[in-house]
Design goal:
Elements: H1 2-19, H2 39-56, E1 69-77, H3 79-82, E2 84-94, E3 100-105, E4 111-134, E5 137-165, E6 168-181, E7 184-189, H4 197-209, H5 211-240, H6 243-246
Antiparallel strand pairs: 1-2, 2-4, 3-4, 4-5, 5-6, 5-7
């Protein structure tokens, strides 16, 4: 009899751990149903509701604030590839959460999702180190920098699948691909040539006269950093909440 009772308790504990301890969805996560004929519109509205929380962070989900967005240290280019070594430390992006979703297509949130975004304005700052030649000019220096950009358009592709854990389905974010196109921008590198103002002005003016071409060389590194950052966030959310919670029938 005691063995039967212990077996009953064990089975009850297993079922409780699987079905009885689901994390409740916060009220700021708007749920869109698979049966919704306007699913894509519902999803875009859900992102708009979530936007303030994205900016301030969600400590209850272990998601840090995205204003500013900290991308850490990046190697932008290497001399053997481009003729110039450029590295950045403590790269921070401001206004990254002010994006507008101009187009969104999905397969009811499973499979391939595509979003087209417009970022009206964002700024970056950090600490740079550079050595090599840029636009046929010798370039050397290290210091802080600041950049301001506008009208950035991006296409974001998500691959979302399903996995089963302990008999419960969860979503799995398998891939994020970000491709961005720069609109306008200006950047200033401080302390070039050990603070030589005349040479620094020449280089900064040359950079800004060719900002689109230079931005196209820099963007791939930033895109990869953004992909990594948002993959981490998506993974956290999908591990906490079940597929049925996020996408009920």
């Amino acid at each position: 009899m005691a063995q039967q009772f212990l077996f009953y308790i064990l089975i009850l504990s297993v079922f409780s751990s699987i079905f009885g301890e689901l994390n409740p969805l916060p009220d700021y996560i708007k749920v869109c149903r698979k049966s919704d004929l306007n699913f894509d519109k519902c999803f875009v509205n859900a992102i708009e509701i979530l936007r303030p929380k994205i900016a301030k962070g969600m400590p209850e989900l272990n998601i840090p604030p995205l204003e500013p967005l900290d991308l850490g240290d990046l190697v932008i280019s290497k001399k053997q590839d481009t003729g110039i070594d450029i590295s950045v430390k403590n790269l921070r992006v401001y206004n990254a959460t002010t994006f507008k979703i101009t187009n969104f297509k999905s397969e009811n949130f499973v499979g391939h999702l595509t979003a087209e975004l417009l970022l009206p304005r964002f700024e970056i700052e950090g600490f740079y180190s550079v050595e090599g030649r840029l636009l046929a000019l010798p370039l050397k220096g290290s210091g802080d920098f600041h950049g301001s950009f506008s009208n950035i358009r991006a296409k974001v592709k998500f691959d979302v699948g399903r996995i089963e854990k302990n008999g419960v389905e969860y979503f799995k974010l398998s891939q994020i691909n970000i491709k961005a196109k720069m609109g306008k921008g200006r950047i200033k590198l401080n302390n070039l040539f050990d603070g030589n103002k005349e040479l620094s002005n020449v280089i900064n003016d040359s950079i800004n006269d060719n900002i689109i071409a230079i931005a196209n060389d820099i963007l791939p590194s930033i895109e990869k950093a953004l992909e990594k950052k948002f993959s981490e966030i998506g993974k956290k959310v999908f591990e906490i909440f079940t597929a049925n919670q996020l996408l009920p029938n």
